């Protein structure tokens, strides 16, 4: 039995007191123990602020970018080991493990590339300067400078490597040290990556710390220069936002939470269209990849009412071909859920949806005596306006078909009833329909992915989060945002308006030759 340790104040240490037992999701075998009790969090914050922050800020953006590239390489060198560990500790298939681990190293490498476009300064220029007085002599320029605090990252269990790496990439490039807190059910994989990072020696002391186990009093130590980025449930996000200490110090808290993502099939896409094949394969992938445990997965499938029976039959055929089982076996295409708690939540959630829908394939029953397995599940709503389909996110391999009239306005109304989403996917070859729906749902969605015949075989699926594009969403989706190229650095930078004599301000801060 392995005891997972935290890395703080320059040393590894196990927790004390009551611990949590981690299990192999396939066999339910105990594989590790974890606890954060006894870890001196106050000292961790001090070490990061006093040592890690100054050391990172001293080297500048481009050097920090080079460090990200080296970190990507260091993690990639352990790829095969990490893939095997993901299968064992997170219940992923090899393909799903690659999605997590390669996504992590790819994002670190992407931010290393973005850094090459940054001037070697201690700040970023934010837009053009402008005249503030009756003559240009009084001039203003916005700049972005690294905050002098710590970035606390509370990560989700479903992507233990990518979720940590994508947050780290932005904060470290911005010049802020990090404290990473992995999701507990799959912490074993994140812990091994943390070991690789520490052993690489690429980061200065205090720049990277890792708290394994419960978050406990992490937010009680935050101050006005610190940032918190959280990925997880809206309920936990609301709890973090209400932390008295964080409220008192107006700590910036970025939340990426639940999302009832919609896939919308346009009325113009018939069975022979390439866009229809794209729709079927993407929906199947979203339901089954990572056993549906993705914040970007499709939960609601909007289909023109006259096409519902045909689409339902085709989707069921796709889902029923997916082999569910031991993720270590080559032919397996979907493994178990990540934990016993996940199994309980998912089976209960499917049952609640099934009370208002017809189960077309799968269902709420556990499919094996050992392991946290459920079948890919597709339902058809009896009443697409019923609140349960727009309020309950089943974080597993489950989605519901919602019939709509085929009119753009009806699709917009149903998609927006989710209360705010990370991504909506739209399949249409009709420009007018696609444009109307896109503009109609954009206020409620962080990303709109549009599939058409011209895009078939040319684009990554809508559930893939790319470092170049914004990842976040309003309302239920948390109201926060990450990535989006250099936009991802903004939570870790302070925007300051510098005002003064034009000649001096422009030369010092306007990007002009110094």
Which runs of at least 5 residues are low in confidence (pLDDT < 50)?
none
Give the termini separation.
59 Å
- DSSP helical segment count: 14
For the record, the count of structural domains works out to 2
Instruction: Please estimate the helix content.
Output: 25-40%
* Gross CATH architecture of the largest domain: 3-Layer(aba) Sandwich
The radius of gyration over CA amounts to 24 Å
The top level CATH class name of the largest domain: Alpha Beta
Name the CATH homologous superfamily of the largest domain: Aldehyde Dehydrogenase, Chain A, domain 1
Strand segment tally:
23
Strand order of the largest sheet: 16-17-18-15-14-19-20
Question: How would you portray this structure in words?
Answer:
The chain has 514 residues and is an alpha/beta fold. It has 2 domains: 2-257 and 479-509, Aldehyde Dehydrogenase, Chain A, domain 1 (3-Layer(aba) Sandwich), CATH 3.40.605; 261-474, Aldehyde Dehydrogenase, Chain A, domain 2. It is built from 14 helices and 23 strands. The chain has helices spanning 41-76, 79-90, 94-115, 162-174, 187-200, 234-241, 244-248, 274-288, 308-320, 340-354, 388-391, 408-416, 431-441, 502-509, and strands spanning 2-4, 6-8, 11-13, 20-23, 30-34, 124-125, 130-131, 138-146, 151-154, 178-181, 208-210, 227-231, 252-256, 261-265, 298-304, 357-361, 377-381, 398-404, 421-427, 445-451, 470-472, 481-483, 493-501. It has a 7-stranded mixed β-sheet with strand order 16-17-18-15-14-19-20, sandwiched between helices. Strand 21 (470-472) and strand 22 form a beta hairpin. Helix 2 (79-90) packs across helix 3. The chain is globular and about 70 Å long. The mean pLDDT is 94.
